[in-house]
Design brief:
0% strand; elongated; 86 residues; 2 domains; 73% helix; mainly alpha
């Protein structure tokens, strides 16, 4: 059993229904020991973390701008409705 076989087992497990998930598929220790797992170099991991932190800060800023725009829209709708009713 190679690593592609191992991947296929777990992909199949992920696709089956909850009712069918009675047990996690069994994998022998020697198969796990032979399976190569790609791990980025420590320096590259650091760059990935910095990039993710940057993207998350951009996301936070966009979220704040969206909230501000929604608040402004609410104020404008209220002003229009007050003008219509007045």
């Amino acid at each position: 059993m190679g690593s592609s076989d191992l991947e296929a087992i777990f992909i199949k497990y992920g696709l089956i229904t909850r009712e069918e998930k009675k047990q996690m598929p069994k994998v022998k220790q020697n198969v796990i020991n032979k399976t190569m797992i790609a791990v980025s170099l420590f320096a590259k991991q650091g760059r990935i973390v910095k990039r993710m932190e940057h993207l998350l800060s951009l996301y936070g800023a966009l979220e704040a701008r969206l909230q501000s725009a929604e608040d402004e829209r609410g104020r404008l709708v209220s002003a229009v409705m007050a003008g219509v009713g007045g």
